[in-house]
């Protein structure tokens, strides 16, 4: 969907998962400037 709307490659990345290790790894990575999370606990 991001390609169809004109976003350049690698601007939007989706990482599905619910493991704390996943969130920690992307939040401390040196090449990641912003993280936005959406979802629900249900």
Automatic annotation (TrEMBL):
| Database matches in Gene3D superfamilies | Aldehyde Dehydrogenase, Chain A, domain 1
Query: In the record, what terms sit under GO molecular function?
Result: oxidoreductase activity
The residue ranges of the Aldehyde dehydrogenase domain are 5-41
Q: Read off the Pfam families from this record.
A: Aldedh
Name listed for the protein in its UniProt record = Aldehyde dehydrogenase domain-containing protein
């Amino acid at each position: 969907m991001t390609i169809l709307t004109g976003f350049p490659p690698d601007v939007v990345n989706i990482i599905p998962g619910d493991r704390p290790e996943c969130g920690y790894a992307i939040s401390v990575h040196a090449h990641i400037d912003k993280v936005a999370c959406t979802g629900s606990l249900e």
